[in-house]
Specification:
Elements: H1 22-32, E1 39-41, E2 47-50, H2 59-68, H3 76-99, H4 105-125, H5 135-147, H6 149-158, H7 189-203, H8 210-242, H9 244-258, H10 261-266, H11 280-285, H12 287-290, H13 306-324, H14 336-348, H15 356-369, E3 378-383, H16 394-409, E4 415-419, E5 424-427, H17 436-444, H18 454-467, H19 472-476, E6 479-484, H20 504-520, E7 528-533, E8 539-540, E9 549-553, H21 568-573, H22 576-584, H23 590-599
Parallel strand pairs: 3-4, 3-6, 6-7, 7-9
Antiparallel strand pairs: 1-2, 2-8, 4-5
Protein backbone atom coordinates (compact mmCIF):
# COMPACT_ATOMS: atom_id res chain seq x y z
CA UNK A 1 0.00 0.00 0.00
CA UNK A 2 1.43 3.41 -1.09
CA UNK A 3 1.82 6.10 1.47
CA UNK A 4 -0.55 9.01 1.13
CA UNK A 5 2.10 11.43 2.32
CA UNK A 6 4.45 13.20 -0.14
CA UNK A 7 8.10 13.79 0.57
CA UNK A 8 9.27 17.39 0.85
CA UNK A 9 11.08 18.79 -2.21
CA UNK A 10 14.83 18.74 -2.06
CA UNK A 11 16.23 22.25 -1.84
CA UNK A 12 19.76 23.55 -1.77
CA UNK A 13 20.80 26.28 0.60
CA UNK A 14 20.95 29.74 -0.91
CA UNK A 15 23.72 31.70 0.73
CA UNK A 16 23.27 35.39 1.23
CA UNK A 17 25.20 37.65 -1.16
CA UNK A 18 27.74 38.42 1.56
CA UNK A 19 28.56 34.70 1.96
CA UNK A 20 28.46 33.74 -1.75
CA UNK A 21 31.43 32.07 -3.40
CA UNK A 22 33.77 34.73 -4.89
CA UNK A 23 33.21 33.38 -8.40
CA UNK A 24 29.43 33.48 -8.03
CA UNK A 25 29.60 36.95 -6.53
CA UNK A 26 31.75 38.17 -9.43
CA UNK A 27 29.24 36.96 -12.01
CA UNK A 28 26.32 38.29 -9.99
CA UNK A 29 27.97 41.71 -9.98
CA UNK A 30 28.48 41.64 -13.75
CA UNK A 31 24.91 40.52 -14.42
CA UNK A 32 23.47 43.23 -12.19
CA UNK A 33 25.33 46.05 -13.90
CA UNK A 34 23.23 48.32 -16.04
CA UNK A 35 24.34 50.64 -18.79
CA UNK A 36 24.99 54.24 -17.87
CA UNK A 37 22.37 56.81 -18.93
CA UNK A 38 22.65 57.73 -22.59
CA UNK A 39 23.64 54.23 -23.72
CA UNK A 40 21.72 51.27 -25.10
CA UNK A 41 22.33 47.88 -26.68
CA UNK A 42 22.01 47.70 -30.47
CA UNK A 43 20.36 44.93 -32.46
CA UNK A 44 23.40 42.69 -32.03
CA UNK A 45 24.01 43.55 -28.37
CA UNK A 46 26.72 46.12 -29.00
CA UNK A 47 26.79 49.17 -26.75
CA UNK A 48 25.89 52.38 -28.57
CA UNK A 49 24.73 55.88 -27.76
CA UNK A 50 20.97 56.18 -27.66
CA UNK A 51 18.69 58.77 -29.19
CA UNK A 52 18.57 61.74 -26.83
CA UNK A 53 15.67 63.94 -25.81
CA UNK A 54 15.52 67.24 -27.67
CA UNK A 55 16.29 70.26 -25.50
CA UNK A 56 18.24 73.50 -25.72
CA UNK A 57 21.19 71.88 -23.93
CA UNK A 58 21.28 68.86 -26.26
CA UNK A 59 20.52 70.69 -29.51
CA UNK A 60 23.87 70.11 -31.22
CA UNK A 61 23.94 66.41 -30.36
CA UNK A 62 20.32 65.96 -31.41
CA UNK A 63 20.91 67.58 -34.82
CA UNK A 64 23.99 65.40 -35.32
CA UNK A 65 21.96 62.30 -34.51
CA UNK A 66 19.16 63.46 -36.78
CA UNK A 67 21.58 63.92 -39.67
CA UNK A 68 23.19 60.51 -39.09
CA UNK A 69 19.82 58.75 -39.22
CA UNK A 70 18.58 60.77 -42.21
CA UNK A 71 18.60 57.74 -44.49
CA UNK A 72 16.11 56.64 -47.13
CA UNK A 73 13.41 54.38 -45.76
CA UNK A 74 10.19 52.90 -47.10
CA UNK A 75 8.83 52.51 -43.58
CA UNK A 76 5.95 54.77 -42.59
CA UNK A 77 7.21 54.55 -39.03
CA UNK A 78 10.66 55.70 -40.13
CA UNK A 79 9.22 58.68 -42.01
CA UNK A 80 7.07 59.55 -39.00
CA UNK A 81 10.21 59.65 -36.86
CA UNK A 82 11.83 62.04 -39.35
CA UNK A 83 8.78 64.31 -39.12
CA UNK A 84 8.69 64.13 -35.32
CA UNK A 85 12.40 64.85 -34.92
CA UNK A 86 12.24 67.76 -37.38
CA UNK A 87 9.25 69.20 -35.55
CA UNK A 88 10.83 68.85 -32.09
CA UNK A 89 14.15 70.38 -33.14
CA UNK A 90 12.46 73.32 -34.86
CA UNK A 91 10.20 73.90 -31.85
CA UNK A 92 13.22 74.20 -29.55
CA UNK A 93 15.03 76.51 -31.98
CA UNK A 94 12.08 78.79 -32.67
CA UNK A 95 11.06 78.93 -29.02
CA UNK A 96 14.60 79.94 -28.09
CA UNK A 97 14.72 82.65 -30.76
CA UNK A 98 11.45 84.12 -29.51
CA UNK A 99 12.14 84.00 -25.77
CA UNK A 100 15.91 84.23 -25.21
CA UNK A 101 17.70 87.57 -24.87
CA UNK A 102 19.23 88.46 -28.22
CA UNK A 103 22.55 89.40 -26.61
CA UNK A 104 23.02 85.96 -25.06
CA UNK A 105 25.13 83.12 -26.45
CA UNK A 106 22.09 80.81 -26.35
CA UNK A 107 20.26 83.09 -28.77
CA UNK A 108 23.19 83.00 -31.20
CA UNK A 109 23.30 79.22 -30.83
CA UNK A 110 19.62 78.94 -31.75
CA UNK A 111 20.21 81.04 -34.88
CA UNK A 112 23.23 78.93 -35.85
CA UNK A 113 21.37 75.67 -35.27
CA UNK A 114 18.40 76.92 -37.26
CA UNK A 115 20.65 77.74 -40.21
CA UNK A 116 22.25 74.29 -40.01
CA UNK A 117 18.83 72.61 -40.03
CA UNK A 118 17.73 74.79 -42.95
CA UNK A 119 20.85 73.90 -44.95
CA UNK A 120 20.40 70.25 -44.02
CA UNK A 121 16.96 70.46 -45.64
CA UNK A 122 18.61 71.75 -48.82
CA UNK A 123 21.31 69.08 -48.79
CA UNK A 124 18.73 66.34 -48.37
CA UNK A 125 17.12 67.18 -51.72
CA UNK A 126 20.18 68.48 -53.60
CA UNK A 127 20.50 66.20 -56.63
CA UNK A 128 23.96 67.55 -57.51
CA UNK A 129 26.01 67.83 -54.34
CA UNK A 130 23.74 66.39 -51.66
CA UNK A 131 21.81 63.25 -50.81
CA UNK A 132 19.33 63.57 -53.65
CA UNK A 133 16.45 62.27 -51.51
CA UNK A 134 12.93 63.43 -52.26
CA UNK A 135 10.62 61.75 -49.72
CA UNK A 136 12.77 62.63 -46.71
CA UNK A 137 12.89 66.18 -48.05
CA UNK A 138 9.10 66.41 -48.46
CA UNK A 139 8.58 65.18 -44.90
CA UNK A 140 10.97 67.80 -43.54
CA UNK A 141 9.66 70.60 -45.76
CA UNK A 142 6.12 70.13 -44.49
CA UNK A 143 7.33 70.73 -40.93
CA UNK A 144 9.21 73.87 -42.01
CA UNK A 145 6.07 75.17 -43.76
CA UNK A 146 4.09 74.71 -40.55
CA UNK A 147 6.63 76.84 -38.67
CA UNK A 148 6.51 79.70 -41.18
CA UNK A 149 5.15 79.46 -44.71
CA UNK A 150 7.86 81.82 -45.97
CA UNK A 151 10.39 79.03 -45.51
CA UNK A 152 8.38 76.91 -47.93
CA UNK A 153 8.03 79.78 -50.39
CA UNK A 154 11.78 80.19 -50.61
CA UNK A 155 12.73 76.51 -50.65
CA UNK A 156 10.24 75.55 -53.36
CA UNK A 157 11.86 78.10 -55.67
CA UNK A 158 15.34 76.70 -55.09
CA UNK A 159 14.13 73.39 -56.53
CA UNK A 160 13.78 74.94 -59.99
CA UNK A 161 15.91 78.10 -59.96
CA UNK A 162 19.54 78.94 -59.33
CA UNK A 163 20.08 78.54 -55.59
CA UNK A 164 22.34 81.58 -55.40
CA UNK A 165 20.35 84.11 -57.43
CA UNK A 166 17.13 83.99 -55.42
CA UNK A 167 18.53 84.87 -52.00
CA UNK A 168 18.06 88.57 -51.35
CA UNK A 169 14.38 88.61 -50.50
CA UNK A 170 11.78 85.97 -49.84
CA UNK A 171 9.23 87.83 -51.92
CA UNK A 172 11.58 88.84 -54.75
CA UNK A 173 10.80 87.81 -58.31
CA UNK A 174 12.90 87.65 -61.45
CA UNK A 175 12.22 90.29 -64.05
CA UNK A 176 13.41 88.59 -67.15
CA UNK A 177 16.38 86.31 -67.43
CA UNK A 178 15.49 82.75 -66.45
CA UNK A 179 18.91 81.31 -67.19
CA UNK A 180 20.54 79.73 -64.15
CA UNK A 181 24.24 79.80 -63.37
CA UNK A 182 24.09 76.40 -61.72
CA UNK A 183 21.70 73.49 -61.47
CA UNK A 184 18.79 73.91 -59.02
CA UNK A 185 18.42 71.64 -56.01
CA UNK A 186 15.66 69.62 -57.66
CA UNK A 187 13.42 69.85 -60.72
CA UNK A 188 9.93 70.81 -61.84
CA UNK A 189 8.86 67.21 -61.17
CA UNK A 190 9.09 68.04 -57.47
CA UNK A 191 6.05 70.28 -57.82
CA UNK A 192 3.83 67.37 -58.79
CA UNK A 193 5.34 64.88 -56.36
CA UNK A 194 5.29 67.29 -53.43
CA UNK A 195 1.62 68.20 -53.94
CA UNK A 196 0.75 64.50 -54.20
CA UNK A 197 2.50 63.85 -50.90
CA UNK A 198 0.89 66.87 -49.26
CA UNK A 199 -2.56 65.77 -50.41
CA UNK A 200 -2.07 62.37 -48.79
CA UNK A 201 -0.68 63.84 -45.58
CA UNK A 202 -3.06 66.75 -45.10
CA UNK A 203 -6.37 65.84 -46.67
CA UNK A 204 -6.11 62.22 -45.59
CA UNK A 205 -5.00 63.09 -42.07
CA UNK A 206 -6.96 63.12 -38.84
CA UNK A 207 -4.29 64.94 -36.85
CA UNK A 208 -6.01 68.31 -37.17
CA UNK A 209 -9.17 69.73 -38.66
CA UNK A 210 -9.99 69.03 -42.28
CA UNK A 211 -10.61 72.75 -42.78
CA UNK A 212 -7.19 73.69 -41.43
CA UNK A 213 -5.46 71.09 -43.56
CA UNK A 214 -7.37 72.18 -46.65
CA UNK A 215 -6.26 75.77 -46.10
CA UNK A 216 -2.62 74.76 -45.82
CA UNK A 217 -2.86 72.53 -48.89
CA UNK A 218 -4.47 75.40 -50.81
CA UNK A 219 -1.52 77.61 -49.93
CA UNK A 220 0.86 74.97 -51.29
CA UNK A 221 -1.13 74.71 -54.52
CA UNK A 222 -1.36 78.48 -54.94
CA UNK A 223 2.37 78.97 -54.44
CA UNK A 224 3.29 76.27 -56.96
CA UNK A 225 0.74 77.47 -59.52
CA UNK A 226 2.04 81.02 -59.12
CA UNK A 227 5.57 79.73 -59.57
CA UNK A 228 4.63 78.07 -62.85
CA UNK A 229 2.78 81.20 -64.00
CA UNK A 230 5.79 83.31 -63.05
CA UNK A 231 8.04 81.17 -65.21
CA UNK A 232 5.66 81.67 -68.12
CA UNK A 233 5.77 85.43 -67.48
CA UNK A 234 9.57 85.39 -67.41
CA UNK A 235 9.60 83.61 -70.75
CA UNK A 236 7.17 86.17 -72.17
CA UNK A 237 9.31 89.09 -70.98
CA UNK A 238 12.41 87.46 -72.39
CA UNK A 239 10.64 86.89 -75.70
CA UNK A 240 9.71 90.56 -75.87
CA UNK A 241 13.22 91.68 -74.97
CA UNK A 242 15.10 89.20 -77.07
CA UNK A 243 12.98 89.34 -80.18
CA UNK A 244 14.09 87.03 -82.96
CA UNK A 245 17.12 85.66 -81.11
CA UNK A 246 15.02 84.51 -78.16
CA UNK A 247 12.33 83.15 -80.48
CA UNK A 248 14.95 81.00 -82.17
CA UNK A 249 16.18 79.93 -78.75
CA UNK A 250 12.68 78.89 -77.69
CA UNK A 251 12.01 77.14 -80.99
CA UNK A 252 15.33 75.32 -80.67
CA UNK A 253 14.41 74.20 -77.16
CA UNK A 254 10.99 73.02 -78.33
CA UNK A 255 12.52 71.13 -81.22
CA UNK A 256 14.97 69.53 -78.84
CA UNK A 257 12.09 68.44 -76.63
CA UNK A 258 10.24 67.04 -79.62
CA UNK A 259 13.43 65.14 -80.46
CA UNK A 260 13.43 63.30 -77.15
CA UNK A 261 14.03 59.58 -77.03
CA UNK A 262 10.45 58.85 -76.03
CA UNK A 263 9.01 60.83 -78.95
CA UNK A 264 11.20 58.94 -81.40
CA UNK A 265 10.25 55.62 -79.84
CA UNK A 266 6.52 56.32 -79.92
CA UNK A 267 6.78 57.56 -83.50
CA UNK A 268 8.48 54.40 -84.69
CA UNK A 269 11.69 56.28 -85.48
CA UNK A 270 14.13 54.40 -83.26
CA UNK A 271 16.89 54.62 -85.85
CA UNK A 272 16.80 58.45 -85.62
CA UNK A 273 17.61 58.57 -81.90
CA UNK A 274 20.66 60.70 -81.21
CA UNK A 275 22.35 58.98 -78.28
CA UNK A 276 24.34 62.10 -77.45
CA UNK A 277 21.03 63.67 -76.39
CA UNK A 278 19.81 60.74 -74.28
CA UNK A 279 19.79 61.49 -70.53
CA UNK A 280 21.82 59.32 -68.19
CA UNK A 281 18.77 57.77 -66.51
CA UNK A 282 17.05 56.98 -69.83
CA UNK A 283 20.30 55.51 -71.13
CA UNK A 284 20.56 53.30 -68.05
CA UNK A 285 16.96 52.14 -68.07
CA UNK A 286 16.59 51.53 -71.80
CA UNK A 287 19.84 49.89 -72.86
CA UNK A 288 18.00 46.66 -73.67
CA UNK A 289 15.45 48.57 -75.74
CA UNK A 290 18.15 50.37 -77.73
CA UNK A 291 19.75 46.99 -78.43
CA UNK A 292 16.39 45.45 -79.42
CA UNK A 293 16.78 42.80 -76.74
CA UNK A 294 14.32 41.11 -74.43
CA UNK A 295 14.64 41.42 -70.66
CA UNK A 296 16.97 38.42 -70.57
CA UNK A 297 19.54 40.52 -72.41
CA UNK A 298 20.21 37.78 -74.95
CA UNK A 299 17.33 37.20 -77.35
CA UNK A 300 16.10 39.70 -79.94
CA UNK A 301 12.80 41.42 -79.22
CA UNK A 302 11.68 42.45 -82.73
CA UNK A 303 13.68 40.37 -85.20
CA UNK A 304 12.02 41.62 -88.37
CA UNK A 305 11.72 45.29 -87.41
CA UNK A 306 14.23 47.13 -89.61
CA UNK A 307 13.92 50.36 -87.63
CA UNK A 308 14.71 48.61 -84.32
CA UNK A 309 17.62 46.70 -85.86
CA UNK A 310 19.08 49.92 -87.28
CA UNK A 311 18.77 51.49 -83.83
CA UNK A 312 20.70 48.55 -82.41
CA UNK A 313 23.48 49.01 -84.97
CA UNK A 314 23.62 52.75 -84.25
CA UNK A 315 23.81 52.17 -80.51
CA UNK A 316 26.58 49.61 -80.79
CA UNK A 317 28.55 52.01 -83.02
CA UNK A 318 27.96 54.76 -80.45
CA UNK A 319 29.29 52.51 -77.67
CA UNK A 320 32.40 51.70 -79.69
CA UNK A 321 33.07 55.42 -80.02
CA UNK A 322 32.58 55.88 -76.28
CA UNK A 323 35.01 53.07 -75.45
CA UNK A 324 37.46 54.46 -78.00
CA UNK A 325 37.29 57.91 -76.44
CA UNK A 326 35.82 59.77 -79.42
CA UNK A 327 32.41 60.15 -77.77
CA UNK A 328 30.95 60.39 -74.29
CA UNK A 329 28.09 58.73 -72.45
CA UNK A 330 26.12 60.33 -69.61
CA UNK A 331 26.00 58.62 -66.23
CA UNK A 332 26.06 61.29 -63.54
CA UNK A 333 22.39 61.06 -62.53
CA UNK A 334 22.26 57.26 -62.20
CA UNK A 335 22.20 56.24 -58.54
CA UNK A 336 24.85 54.01 -56.99
CA UNK A 337 22.12 51.56 -56.01
CA UNK A 338 20.87 51.26 -59.60
CA UNK A 339 24.42 50.74 -60.85
CA UNK A 340 25.02 47.84 -58.46
CA UNK A 341 21.60 46.28 -59.06
CA UNK A 342 22.24 46.33 -62.81
CA UNK A 343 25.67 44.74 -62.34
CA UNK A 344 24.11 41.99 -60.23
CA UNK A 345 21.44 41.55 -62.91
CA UNK A 346 24.17 41.01 -65.52
CA UNK A 347 25.66 38.27 -63.35
CA UNK A 348 22.25 36.68 -62.71
CA UNK A 349 21.57 36.53 -66.45
CA UNK A 350 25.07 35.19 -67.15
CA UNK A 351 25.70 37.82 -69.79
CA UNK A 352 29.03 37.48 -71.63
CA UNK A 353 31.72 39.99 -70.67
CA UNK A 354 31.61 41.53 -74.16
CA UNK A 355 27.85 42.16 -73.97
CA UNK A 356 27.01 45.74 -75.02
CA UNK A 357 24.77 45.90 -71.94
CA UNK A 358 27.83 45.44 -69.73
CA UNK A 359 29.86 47.84 -71.85
CA UNK A 360 27.23 50.57 -71.45
CA UNK A 361 27.05 50.00 -67.70
CA UNK A 362 30.83 50.18 -67.27
CA UNK A 363 31.09 53.35 -69.33
CA UNK A 364 28.24 55.05 -67.45
CA UNK A 365 29.99 54.20 -64.17
CA UNK A 366 33.15 55.91 -65.46
CA UNK A 367 31.09 58.97 -66.33
CA UNK A 368 29.52 58.97 -62.88
CA UNK A 369 32.91 58.80 -61.16
CA UNK A 370 33.94 62.19 -62.57
CA UNK A 371 31.88 63.92 -59.86
CA UNK A 372 34.33 62.71 -57.20
CA UNK A 373 37.80 64.05 -56.51
CA UNK A 374 40.79 62.02 -55.36
CA UNK A 375 40.95 60.74 -51.80
CA UNK A 376 43.91 60.21 -49.47
CA UNK A 377 44.85 57.00 -47.64
CA UNK A 378 41.28 55.75 -47.65
CA UNK A 379 40.18 52.15 -47.12
CA UNK A 380 36.55 51.20 -47.69
CA UNK A 381 35.11 48.72 -45.20
CA UNK A 382 31.94 47.12 -46.54
CA UNK A 383 29.28 45.54 -44.33
CA UNK A 384 27.87 42.51 -46.19
CA UNK A 385 25.99 40.97 -43.25
CA UNK A 386 22.36 39.87 -43.29
CA UNK A 387 20.85 43.06 -41.87
CA UNK A 388 22.13 45.00 -44.89
CA UNK A 389 19.54 43.26 -47.08
CA UNK A 390 16.67 45.06 -45.32
CA UNK A 391 14.89 47.95 -47.10
CA UNK A 392 15.05 46.14 -50.45
CA UNK A 393 18.82 45.61 -50.02
CA UNK A 394 19.41 49.34 -50.56
CA UNK A 395 21.98 49.44 -47.71
CA UNK A 396 23.91 46.52 -49.20
CA UNK A 397 23.87 47.78 -52.78
CA UNK A 398 24.92 51.28 -51.77
CA UNK A 399 27.69 49.91 -49.53
CA UNK A 400 29.14 47.95 -52.44
CA UNK A 401 28.91 50.85 -54.89
CA UNK A 402 30.30 53.47 -52.51
CA UNK A 403 33.13 51.15 -51.48
CA UNK A 404 34.15 50.60 -55.09
CA UNK A 405 34.11 54.37 -55.64
CA UNK A 406 36.35 54.95 -52.59
CA UNK A 407 38.73 52.25 -53.82
CA UNK A 408 38.91 53.94 -57.24
CA UNK A 409 39.79 57.31 -55.75
CA UNK A 410 42.10 56.23 -52.90
CA UNK A 411 45.84 56.85 -53.31
CA UNK A 412 46.41 53.46 -51.66
CA UNK A 413 45.03 51.63 -54.67
CA UNK A 414 41.89 49.65 -55.34
CA UNK A 415 41.29 47.62 -52.19
CA UNK A 416 38.10 46.86 -50.26
CA UNK A 417 37.64 45.13 -46.91
CA UNK A 418 34.31 43.33 -46.56
CA UNK A 419 33.11 42.06 -43.21
CA UNK A 420 30.34 39.85 -41.87
CA UNK A 421 31.19 36.68 -39.93
CA UNK A 422 34.79 37.12 -41.03
CA UNK A 423 36.61 39.80 -43.04
CA UNK A 424 37.88 39.52 -46.61
CA UNK A 425 40.59 41.73 -48.11
CA UNK A 426 39.75 42.21 -51.78
CA UNK A 427 42.10 43.48 -54.46
CA UNK A 428 40.32 45.23 -57.30
CA UNK A 429 41.71 46.41 -60.62
CA UNK A 430 43.26 43.07 -61.51
CA UNK A 431 42.26 41.16 -64.64
CA UNK A 432 39.30 39.57 -62.89
CA UNK A 433 38.10 42.97 -61.64
CA UNK A 434 39.25 45.62 -64.10
CA UNK A 435 35.73 46.91 -64.80
CA UNK A 436 32.87 48.01 -62.58
CA UNK A 437 30.69 44.96 -63.32
CA UNK A 438 33.58 42.60 -62.56
CA UNK A 439 34.30 44.48 -59.34
CA UNK A 440 30.73 44.13 -58.11
CA UNK A 441 30.84 40.41 -58.89
CA UNK A 442 34.14 40.01 -57.05
CA UNK A 443 32.76 41.70 -53.94
CA UNK A 444 29.66 39.52 -54.20
CA UNK A 445 31.76 36.35 -54.13
CA UNK A 446 33.59 37.34 -50.94
CA UNK A 447 32.80 35.76 -47.59
CA UNK A 448 29.23 36.52 -46.55
CA UNK A 449 27.36 35.76 -43.35
CA UNK A 450 24.43 36.78 -41.22
CA UNK A 451 26.42 38.30 -38.34
CA UNK A 452 28.49 41.51 -38.25
CA UNK A 453 31.90 40.83 -36.72
CA UNK A 454 33.40 44.22 -37.47
CA UNK A 455 36.19 43.87 -34.92
CA UNK A 456 37.75 40.98 -36.84
CA UNK A 457 38.14 43.35 -39.79
CA UNK A 458 39.72 46.04 -37.61
CA UNK A 459 41.95 43.41 -36.02
CA UNK A 460 43.13 42.30 -39.46
CA UNK A 461 44.30 45.87 -40.14
CA UNK A 462 45.94 45.97 -36.70
CA UNK A 463 47.64 42.65 -37.37
CA UNK A 464 49.06 43.83 -40.69
CA UNK A 465 50.63 46.86 -39.01
CA UNK A 466 51.85 45.15 -35.84
CA UNK A 467 53.18 41.91 -37.32
CA UNK A 468 55.16 43.84 -39.93
CA UNK A 469 56.31 46.46 -37.40
CA UNK A 470 55.22 49.31 -39.65
CA UNK A 471 55.80 52.92 -38.53
CA UNK A 472 53.05 54.42 -36.40
CA UNK A 473 52.35 56.97 -39.15
CA UNK A 474 50.94 54.15 -41.27
CA UNK A 475 48.14 53.58 -38.77
CA UNK A 476 47.57 57.21 -37.86
CA UNK A 477 47.43 58.38 -41.49
CA UNK A 478 44.78 55.88 -42.56
CA UNK A 479 41.12 56.77 -43.08
CA UNK A 480 38.70 53.87 -42.63
CA UNK A 481 35.29 54.47 -44.22
CA UNK A 482 32.79 52.07 -42.67
CA UNK A 483 29.76 51.60 -44.94
CA UNK A 484 27.26 49.87 -42.68
CA UNK A 485 24.00 50.02 -40.75
CA UNK A 486 26.21 50.12 -37.62
CA UNK A 487 24.58 47.07 -36.05
CA UNK A 488 27.83 45.33 -35.11
CA UNK A 489 28.30 42.24 -32.98
CA UNK A 490 29.25 42.86 -29.38
CA UNK A 491 32.97 42.99 -28.61
CA UNK A 492 34.42 39.50 -29.01
CA UNK A 493 36.46 38.04 -26.16
CA UNK A 494 38.64 36.32 -28.78
CA UNK A 495 40.16 39.71 -29.66
CA UNK A 496 42.36 41.38 -27.08
CA UNK A 497 41.99 44.95 -25.89
CA UNK A 498 38.20 45.12 -26.28
CA UNK A 499 35.59 46.12 -23.74
CA UNK A 500 32.11 44.64 -23.89
CA UNK A 501 30.73 47.84 -22.37
CA UNK A 502 32.43 50.33 -24.68
CA UNK A 503 31.06 51.93 -27.83
CA UNK A 504 32.36 51.09 -31.29
CA UNK A 505 34.63 54.13 -31.53
CA UNK A 506 35.93 53.72 -27.99
CA UNK A 507 36.97 50.14 -28.70
CA UNK A 508 38.69 51.07 -31.97
CA UNK A 509 40.74 53.72 -30.15
CA UNK A 510 41.56 51.20 -27.42
CA UNK A 511 42.76 48.58 -29.92
CA UNK A 512 45.22 50.95 -31.58
CA UNK A 513 46.35 52.51 -28.29
CA UNK A 514 47.28 49.07 -26.94
CA UNK A 515 48.95 48.17 -30.23
CA UNK A 516 51.04 51.33 -29.96
CA UNK A 517 52.14 50.44 -26.43
CA UNK A 518 53.30 47.03 -27.59
CA UNK A 519 54.91 48.23 -30.81
CA UNK A 520 56.19 51.75 -30.08
CA UNK A 521 56.21 51.93 -26.29
CA UNK A 522 53.40 54.48 -26.20
CA UNK A 523 49.75 54.64 -27.33
CA UNK A 524 49.09 55.04 -31.03
CA UNK A 525 46.29 57.13 -32.47
CA UNK A 526 43.61 55.23 -34.33
CA UNK A 527 43.02 55.90 -38.03
CA UNK A 528 40.40 58.51 -38.80
CA UNK A 529 37.09 56.64 -38.79
CA UNK A 530 34.19 57.61 -41.04
CA UNK A 531 31.01 55.93 -39.83
CA UNK A 532 28.75 56.02 -42.91
CA UNK A 533 25.22 55.00 -41.99
CA UNK A 534 23.11 53.26 -44.65
CA UNK A 535 20.00 52.19 -42.71
CA UNK A 536 17.71 54.01 -40.31
CA UNK A 537 18.05 52.63 -36.77
CA UNK A 538 18.15 54.27 -33.33
CA UNK A 539 21.79 54.08 -32.20
CA UNK A 540 25.01 56.03 -32.69
CA UNK A 541 28.68 54.93 -32.63
CA UNK A 542 30.14 58.22 -31.38
CA UNK A 543 29.31 61.70 -30.12
CA UNK A 544 29.28 64.92 -32.13
CA UNK A 545 32.33 66.19 -30.21
CA UNK A 546 34.59 63.13 -30.50
CA UNK A 547 37.85 63.90 -32.31
CA UNK A 548 39.31 61.96 -35.24
CA UNK A 549 35.94 60.58 -36.32
CA UNK A 550 33.23 61.57 -38.81
CA UNK A 551 29.58 60.54 -39.13
CA UNK A 552 27.92 60.52 -42.55
CA UNK A 553 24.79 58.98 -44.02
CA UNK A 554 23.00 58.46 -47.32
CA UNK A 555 23.56 56.81 -50.68
CA UNK A 556 25.13 59.62 -52.72
CA UNK A 557 28.83 59.46 -53.69
CA UNK A 558 28.82 63.27 -54.02
CA UNK A 559 29.03 63.45 -50.21
CA UNK A 560 32.51 61.92 -50.37
CA UNK A 561 33.81 65.21 -51.70
CA UNK A 562 33.77 66.72 -48.22
CA UNK A 563 36.92 64.64 -47.56
CA UNK A 564 38.78 65.57 -50.75
CA UNK A 565 41.98 67.57 -50.27
CA UNK A 566 41.77 67.24 -46.49
CA UNK A 567 45.19 66.61 -44.95
CA UNK A 568 45.86 63.98 -42.32
CA UNK A 569 46.28 66.55 -39.56
CA UNK A 570 43.03 68.19 -40.54
CA UNK A 571 41.12 64.92 -40.41
CA UNK A 572 42.63 64.01 -37.04
CA UNK A 573 41.12 67.21 -35.63
CA UNK A 574 37.78 66.53 -37.29
CA UNK A 575 34.71 65.78 -35.21
CA UNK A 576 31.33 64.57 -36.51
CA UNK A 577 30.05 68.10 -35.99
CA UNK A 578 32.92 69.61 -38.02
CA UNK A 579 32.20 67.15 -40.82
CA UNK A 580 28.50 68.02 -40.90
CA UNK A 581 29.24 71.74 -40.79
CA UNK A 582 31.77 71.49 -43.63
CA UNK A 583 29.44 69.40 -45.78
CA UNK A 584 26.80 72.14 -45.44
CA UNK A 585 29.30 74.91 -46.17
CA UNK A 586 28.41 74.61 -49.84
CA UNK A 587 27.90 77.59 -52.15
CA UNK A 588 24.74 75.88 -53.42
CA UNK A 589 23.17 76.61 -50.03
CA UNK A 590 24.60 80.13 -49.70
CA UNK A 591 21.19 81.80 -49.57
CA UNK A 592 19.70 79.63 -46.84
CA UNK A 593 21.42 81.35 -43.92
CA UNK A 594 20.33 84.80 -45.10
CA UNK A 595 16.74 83.71 -45.64
CA UNK A 596 16.56 82.03 -42.23
CA UNK A 597 17.73 85.20 -40.49
CA UNK A 598 15.33 87.27 -42.56
CA UNK A 599 12.31 85.15 -41.67
CA UNK A 600 13.02 84.87 -37.94
Amino acid sequence: MQSSTMSAPITSPSPSPSHAHPFIKALDDIASKTLAPGYQYGNNNHVEYKDITTSLATLQEKIMQFSFQLVRTSSETGLSVVAKDTREILNIIMSGIKTIDKSSSDYKMCIDMGIIMFKLLAQTRDIIGGKGEYMLFYVMLLEWAKVDFRFFEYVIETLVYDTQDNTDNVDSTDTGDSKSKQHPLGSWKDMKYFLTYMKEQLLGSSNCTVEGNSQLYSRFVNKIVNLINEQLRIDAVSLEKGGTSFSLEVISAINKKLDTTQVKQCGGKWSEINFNNVTSITMHKQTNSFLNLNKNGKTTRCENDEDRNNCKDNYEAYLRDVVGGSNKIKGKRVSVIDFVKSAIDCKTKSLPTDSPIITALNEQWKSNSIQNGNLGNFIAMTDVSGSMTEDNSNPLHSAIGLSIRVAEKSVLGQRVMTFSERPTWIQLGTQDSDTFVKQVNKVLTSSWGMTTNFYLAIDLIREGIEDNKLPREVAENLVLVVFSDMQMNNASTSIRDLSARATLFENIKLMFAKMGERLYGEPCKAPHIVFWNLRKTTGFPSLSTDQNVSMMSGFSPALLNVFCEKGVEGLQQYTPWNTLHNSLNNKRYSGFDRIFKQVV
